[in-house]
């Protein structure tokens, strides 16, 4: 439920304070209204013209050049707007109240929306009314649920309600009560009915004279209430044992009749359904008594159970979850004689017509959006077609449609049924029914019962006994509450029948359910808007509270404000009008609610003003809420007279005008209230003016109609409180006088003191309103609202305003009054055009902006748009003289002279001329001297603030005016800094060099210079050689400026357009290394700055560029030097200029690469060894000083950087050695030479170059780790001593040793890999010959052989170590330990990796094995040929015996062949192709006359082997079996 909109106003702070004190009342926060101001903007004008000055929209602010100037110099083009725009901003009130509250099981939706949740976390407050008024039927409860009643009748099992209330019991009795709870009949005593088990279903005929009962044993009895002693009709069930010999249809003995109903008005026509999933229609013949009548039973749903002898496939379990025949409405329908019955099974909704023959009319499957694996439940209910009380004009809407609501689990669907009757000419054609699902609703849980409470209201009961009230049209939940305390009777009626469906649940099948819900349908009934509940301990009746009950409950609770708000929502139709019993028709609903709402408002006013509040703040907040709901209700009813009389009088008498006016304000601003009585308007003006809220007051007055205003009173108050917007509005709208407000503002301008600060000048703001007023009037708009005037009024207003404003002398106003309107306060002589001069002297810039907008109006077109005395708008104007644009400009030229006005004022006039001349060339004609004067004046602008506007104006002017000698104006443009104008002049004069210089001088568009160079130097431009040389000279001369803009773009542009200038420009940039670097980078590596591409462009570059680029790269990007030089080809780079820079910057890796590429391998290694020695010295120095240094963090970082450098340069050394080894690989030595080389005496002089390189590298890295280890040991000892003292900060020595060991390991690994001789093909072949007799899985490959170079290098290294730094055996031993200790870690890593791989491989193999164990499931249970049952239930026990024998035989074969690998029997993989028969045949019996083995294919077709072979299933060539169906 939503309330109608509630208005309030105020700041957010006030709203929060009020809401905190009155937390129970919903509040609406609204932003404050914008401040009142007439501000110019840059929006397009109302006349639809575009902005002619797009670059001048940024306002500026600087000190005035003239002390009397009211404002600073402004951008030329502004659009004047007032406080009130034609499309105002959003109202400062919300469109709907924020009635939000948490949803609770204990509260209805209506109460949540009316009452806000308490902030302290208390329980959700309850609505003062009961959504459903429940009444316990005490007399019925006492008779049925008492101990005597239970003993005599049994416990109640089902309930049905019509004109009487019938209860079925577990002992077979039917108890009939009237609405006075009087037991009218006890049906069943002394009859066979009490012997047929519990009553499981009840039905009452359409005329309420007959009741029918279905029993748990399958019997059906009907009873006339007037003669309850014996049954009117008895329909016995069929004997289960003799079903095959049955001659008629009927329920089976023992199947409980769960659903029962009468068809139409007949007592002898019934439909029924049982728990076995079968439904029948019963039609009895007329006769004298139950015995003489015969009953014809027809099966309409379900199938009889299979006998024990049947070989038919077992059927899917089913039951009838819900069942109902269509009841009769209050209007005749074609369906009345069809006997429509709806049945809901777990799988289908079926609607059957039973008369004259049983025929299915509609089927619907279960919706796909039913929650998977949810509780299985089903229910349905009909609502017949009825005659509408208030039909619309369309005759088709006089009768409603028949509707069926049905639910599967949590999905509710409404189905419309429409009957199409055949025309009289086709009487034999049956009635056609059209079924259309209209809407769907999903609950959070399964729905177990549903009933129509009225034509448009549904009651929905869920499995947790929660009742929802839904509106049919929108399926909107209007109320919800718990019925757990009612203990509704429910029973498990379906789980026994549907147990196979639940037990065989497939988790991957979303269509299956996890549990069957209990049945509630027999306990929840609705009749004529009342709900009846059968509980375990009582019977209750419930009625939905209507709208009057809810309003009365709120009034009695003392909450008048909520009551008025709720009544307003009922009136408007926002609330749940259908649920509370209000008609849908607006007129009828308004008639019902309006009188009560007015009475409630009157009573609330009396109560509220008589009530005493603890403080004024609380009283004001309460009255503000009262005013809001009163305004909402009365404006909804259009009762404005009541609002401004009774309601306002009550607030005025209570001295509470403030809440009334603040509530009224947003309605006025939204134009919902446009007429206010004069006495209320006077109080409104006084209140807002005294509260210093004149801006908001003016907005309100300007939105009110002047028809009901007291003009003298309002104008006097507006002048008193300086409300000139409102004054202008009243004069122009009420009287049509546009000149009087203008004269009033001119009087203000004369009083403005320009020496006072603008913010303190009380007249300045009002005086400046003259410009938007003039702009609006000259464009035919109402000031300040902005709406357009009608043509006649607009013409008259413009004519009067132009005549007065551009009058050459002082005028009398009003005409004939004898009072001249003067412009001078000192009584001096009046100037020519006095009023125009006064405004220009006040603010020339604003006047020109206003006039720029006025020029867009067609009124100034003069006679050019007049045809036969008729203007373009079609209204006759006679011979009235109207001003033109030419006339106005001529006047301004005569007034705005340097003798009368300052240059700051004249410059705006020049801008005005320059902008409007191109727009109206046919209306404005000026001589060349005037245009030249304008052009010169624009170039001599007084301040840089308006420079851009002046330049744009010059561009406009030059588009229409061609000076005789444009070149003579170039110095003028250069002094003014008009670069765009100069570009245009130079381009038209083909002065390309000067054009390029102008681009370089233009700081606002620097990037465009490269486009200019490309354009000028392109071959198709056609420049002569002299012009090209001049342009190139400028490029070289201004090279520094070009590079400062973008050095990379400069290089790219010159390479494309003038490659011959690259050297000159690079020389010109000699003093700026940074620009040189970016310049060369764009030439050498064009893609490096933007991406990771490695494309080089070095082929067509001048000499020395690469060397200079590498030198600069050493300073600006040293980390990239090595990568760059590695991409260069031999000869691209000269070493002599580069090596000093590389060494100076420490880029040794690049130097090594360059020297190695040029063949200086030995020198490269020496340089690398020296650098590693330098790094070693630095590292040992840092480690040695680590104990004393106070800056631990910097030391740690420096050590980490040194270790990274050492690791990098060791890798560079390995790369150098590996490259040399590959390049010097010669013919292999003989075995004798290799042995002599390996075990003989080796000196360093015997080593070749690559071996010497490896020796130097190994010697360097080993010495590095040895020396570092010594220093680390000393540091660890010092740290141990310091730890005793308490100093714990130290560097990570373990990391240092680990890193260096890793370098040693990498070096030896690379040496071993480089000197390993791979096995040859001949060796592999010979090995395979010797191992061919061994098992294939135990074959081992031959290992690579070591090259003697490794041993030679190692022996030389040991010899050098003995003679240099390890003279003793202990030292040598430690060095070797350091060398080979690094390999321990690698071995551990490899072993861990192997363990991980083994584990992962085992998991995959295990998963594959489990998948193979799952096997295949046959598609059916019978052979595809003989159709005999071969598998599954009913196949016989011989299949199991045969399978056991086959398994024993298979196990025995496995034991015998355990040493042999699996053959093709059971070890084949299961392919997905249907032609593969990969399942071993299973013998069924050894006898020849039996079908024998079964064959199952991957396509899941099942065959007897003999049947398959006889049907052509043998594979080609006897290679197996094929599926005959798939092939």
UniProtKB/TrEMBL annotation:
Superkingdom as given in the UniProt entry: Eukaryota
SUPFAM superfamilies (alphabetical): WD40 repeat-like (SSF50978)
Biological processes annotated in GO: endosomal vesicle fusion; protein targeting to vacuole
Region (Disordered): 1-102, 1320-1345, 1451-1485
GO annotation, cellular component aspect: HOPS complex; late endosome
Ranges of compositional bias, category Polar residues: 44-64
Biased composition (Low complexity): 82-102
Designated name of the protein: Uncharacterized protein
Source organism of the structure: Ophiobolus disseminans
Domain Vacuolar protein sorting-associated protein 8 central: 660-855
Domain (VPS8-like TPR-like repeats) ranges: 1196-1412
């Amino acid at each position: 439920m939503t309330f109608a909109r509630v208005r309030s106003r105020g700041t957010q702070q006030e709203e929060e304070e009020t809401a905190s004190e009155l937390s129970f009342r919903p509040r609406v926060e609204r932003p404050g209204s914008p401040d009142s101001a007439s501000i110019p903007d840059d929006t397009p004008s109302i006349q639809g013209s575009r902005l002619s000055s797009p670059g001048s929209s940024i306002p500026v602010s600087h000190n005035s050049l003239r002390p009397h100037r009211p404002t600073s110099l402004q951008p030329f083009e502004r659009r004047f707007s007032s406080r009130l725009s034609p499309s105002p901003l959003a109202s400062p009130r919300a469109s709907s109240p924020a009635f939000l509250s948490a949803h609770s099981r204990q509260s209805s939706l209506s109460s949540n929306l009316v009452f806000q949740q308490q902030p302290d976390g208390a329980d959700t407050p309850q609505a003062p009314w009961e959504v459903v008024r429940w009444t316990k039927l005490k007399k019925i409860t006492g008779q049925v649920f008492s101990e005597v009643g239970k003993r005599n009748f049994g416990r109640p099992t089902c309930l049905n309600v019509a004109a009487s209330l019938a209860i079925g019991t577990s002992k077979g009795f039917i108890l009939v009560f009237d609405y006075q709870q009087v037991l009218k009949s006890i049906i069943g005593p002394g009859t066979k009915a009490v012997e047929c088990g519990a009553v499981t279903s009840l039905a009452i005929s359409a005329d309420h004279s007959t009741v029918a009962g279905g029993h748990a044993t399958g019997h059906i009895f009907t009873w006339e209430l007037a003669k309850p002693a014996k049954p009117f009709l008895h329909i016995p069930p069929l004997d289960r044992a003799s079903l095959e010999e049955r001659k008629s249809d009927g329920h089976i003995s023992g199947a409980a009749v769960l659903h029962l109903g009468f068809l139409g008005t007949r007592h002898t026509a019934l439909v029924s359904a049982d728990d076995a999933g079968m439904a029948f229609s019963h039609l009895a013949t007329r006769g004298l008594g139950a015995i003489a009548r015969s009953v014809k039973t027809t099966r309409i749903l379900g199938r009889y159970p299979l006998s024990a002898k049947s070989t038919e496939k077992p059927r899917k379990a089913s039951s009838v979850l819900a069942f109902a025949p269509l009841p009769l409405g209050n209007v005749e329908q074609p369906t009345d004689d069809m006997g429509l019955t709806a049945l809901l099974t777990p799988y289908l909704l079926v609607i059957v017509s039973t008369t004259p023959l049983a025929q299915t009319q509609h089927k619907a499957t279960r919706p796909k959006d039913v929650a998977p694996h949810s509780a299985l439940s089903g229910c349905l209910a009909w609502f017949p077609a009825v005659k509408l009380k208030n039909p619309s004009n369309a005759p088709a809407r006089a009768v409603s449609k028949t509707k069926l609501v049905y639910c599967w689990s949590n999905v509710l669907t409404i189905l419309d049924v429409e009957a199409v009757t055949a025309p009289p000419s086709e009487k034999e054609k049956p009635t056609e029914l059209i079924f259309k699902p209209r809407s769907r609703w999903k609950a959070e849980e399964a729905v177990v019962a549903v009933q129509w409470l009225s034509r448009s209201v549904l009651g929905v009961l869920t499995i947790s006994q929660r009742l929802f009230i839904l509106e049919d049209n929108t399926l909107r939940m209007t109320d919800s509450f718990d019925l757990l305390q009612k203990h509704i009777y429910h029973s498990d009626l379906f789980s026994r029948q549907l147990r196979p469906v639940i037990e065989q649940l497939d988790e991957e099948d979303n269509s299956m359910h996890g549990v069957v819900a209990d049945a509630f349908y027999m306990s929840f009934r609705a009749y004529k808007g009342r709900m009846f509940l059968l509980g375990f301990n009582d019977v209750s009746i419930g009625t939905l509270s209507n709208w009057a009950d809810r309003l009365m409950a709120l009034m009695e609770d003392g909450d008048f404000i909520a009551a008025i708000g709720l009544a307003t929502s009922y009136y408007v139709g926002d609330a749940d009008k259908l649920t509370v019993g209000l008609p849908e028709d607006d007129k009828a609903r308004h008639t019902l609610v309006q009188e009560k709402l007015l009475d409630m408002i009157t009573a609330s006013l009396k109560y509220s003003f008589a009530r005493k509040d603890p403080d004024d703040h609380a009283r004001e907040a309460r009255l503000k809420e009262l005013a809001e709901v009163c305004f909402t209700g009365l404006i909804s009813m259009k009762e404005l007279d009541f609002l401004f009389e009774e309601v306002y009088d009550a607030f005025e008498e209570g001295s509470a005008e403030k809440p009334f006016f603040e509530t009224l304000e947003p309605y006025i601003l939204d134009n919902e209230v446009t007429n206010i009585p004069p006495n209320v308007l006077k109080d409104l003006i006084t209140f807002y003016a005294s509260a210093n809220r004149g801006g908001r007051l003016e907005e309100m007055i300007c939105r009110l109609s002047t028809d009901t205003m007291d003009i003298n009173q309002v104008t006097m108050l507006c002048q008193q409180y300086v409300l000139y917007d409102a004054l202008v509005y009243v004069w122009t709208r009420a009287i049509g006088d546009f000149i009087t407000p203008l004269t009033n503002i001119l009087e203000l301008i004369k009083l403005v003191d320009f020496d006072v600060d603008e913010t303190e000048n009380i007249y300045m703001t009002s005086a400046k309103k003259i410009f938007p007023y003039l702009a609006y009037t000259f464009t035919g708009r109402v000031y300040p609202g902005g709406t357009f005037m009608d043509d006649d009024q607009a013409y008259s207003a413009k004519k009067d305003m132009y005549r007065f404003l551009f009058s050459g002398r002082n005028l009398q106003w009003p005409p004939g009054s004898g009072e001249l309107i003067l412009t001078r306060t000192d009584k001096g002589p009046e100037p020519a055009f006095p009023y125009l001069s006064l405004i220009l002297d006040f603010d020339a810039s604003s006047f020109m902006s206003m006039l720029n907008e006025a020029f867009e109006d067609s009124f100034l077109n003069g006679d050019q748009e007049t045809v036969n005395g008729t203007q373009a708008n079609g209204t006759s104007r006679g011979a009235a003289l109207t001003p033109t644009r030419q006339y106005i400009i001529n006047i301004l030229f005569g007034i705005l002279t340097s003798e009368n006005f300052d240059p700051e004022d004249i410059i705006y006039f020049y801008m005005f001329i320059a902008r409007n001349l191109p727009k109206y060339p046919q209306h404005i004609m000026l001589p060349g001297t005037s245009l030249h004067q304008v052009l010169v004046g624009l170039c001599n602008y007084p301040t840089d603030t308006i420079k851009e506007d002046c330049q744009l104006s010059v561009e406009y002017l030059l588009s229409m005016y061609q000076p005789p000698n444009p070149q003579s104006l170039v110095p003028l443009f250069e002094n003014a800094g008009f670069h765009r104008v100069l570009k245009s002049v130079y381009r038209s004069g083909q002065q390309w060099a000067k054009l390029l210089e102008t681009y370089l001088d233009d700081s606002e568009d620097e990037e465009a210079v490269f486009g200019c160079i490309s354009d000028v130097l392109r071959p198709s431009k056609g420049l002569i050689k002299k012009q090209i040389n001049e342009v190139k000279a400028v490029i070289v001369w201004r090279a520094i400026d070009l590079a400062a803009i973008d050095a990379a773009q400069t290089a790219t542009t010159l390479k494309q357009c003038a490659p011959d200038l690259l050297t000159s420009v690079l020389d010109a940039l000699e003093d700026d290394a940074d620009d040189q670097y970016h310049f060369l980078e764009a030439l050498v590596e064009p893609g490096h700055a933007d991406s990771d591409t490695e494309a080089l462009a070095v082929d067509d570059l001048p000499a020395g560029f690469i060397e200079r680029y590498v030198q600069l790269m050493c300073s600006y990007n040293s980390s990239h030097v090595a990568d760059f030089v590695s991409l260069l080809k031999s000869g691209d780079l000269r070493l002599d200029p580069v090596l000093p820079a590389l060494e100076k910057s420490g880029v040794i890796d690049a130097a090594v690469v360059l020297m190695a590429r040029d063949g200086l391998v030995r020198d490269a290694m020496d340089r690398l060894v020296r650098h590693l020695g330098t790094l070693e010295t630095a590292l040992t120095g840092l480690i040695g000083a680590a104990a004393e240094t106070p800056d631990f963090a910097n030391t740690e970082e420096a050590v980490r950087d040194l270790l990274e450098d050492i690791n990098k340069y060791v890798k560079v050394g390995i790369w150098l050695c590996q490259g040399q080894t590959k390049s010097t690989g010669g013919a292999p030595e003989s075995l004798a030479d290799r042995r002599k080389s390996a075990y003989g005496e080796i000196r360093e002089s015997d080593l070749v170059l690559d071996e010497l390189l490896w020796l130097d590298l190994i010697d360097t890295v080993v010495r590095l780790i040895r020396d570092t280890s010594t220093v680390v040991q000393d540091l660890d000892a010092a740290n141990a001593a310091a730890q005793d003292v308490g100093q714990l900060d130290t560097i990570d020595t373990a990391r240092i040793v680990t890193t260096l060991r890793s370098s040693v390991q990498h070096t030896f690994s690379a040496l071993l890999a480089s000197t390993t001789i791979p096995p040859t093909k001949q060796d592999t072949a010979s090995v395979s010959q010797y191992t061919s007799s061994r098992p294939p899985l135990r074959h081992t490959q031959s290992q690579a052989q070591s090259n003697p170079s490794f041993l030679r290098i190692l022996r030389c290294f040991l010899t050098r170590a003995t003679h240099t730094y390890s003279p003793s055996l202990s030292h040598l031993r430690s060095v070797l330990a350091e060398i080979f200790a690094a390999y321990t870690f690698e071995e551990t890593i490899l072993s861990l990796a192997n363990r991980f791989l083994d584990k992962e491989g085992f998991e995959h193999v295990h998963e594959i094995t489990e998948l193979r164990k799952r096997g295949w499931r046959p598609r059916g249970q019978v052979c595809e040929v003989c159709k005999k049952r071969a598998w599954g239930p009913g196949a016989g026990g011989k299949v199991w015996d045969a399978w056991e024998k086959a398994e024993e035989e298979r196990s025995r074969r496995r034991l015998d062949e355990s040493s042999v690998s699996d053959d093709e029997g059971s070890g084949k993989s299961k392919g997905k192709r249907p032609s593969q028969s990969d399942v071993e045949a299973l013998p069924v019996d050894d006898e020849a006359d039996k079908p024998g083995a079964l064959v199952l294919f991957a396509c899941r077709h099942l065959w007897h082997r003999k049947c398959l072979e006889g049907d052509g299933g043998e594979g080609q060539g006897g290679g197996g079996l094929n599926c005959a169906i798939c092939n």
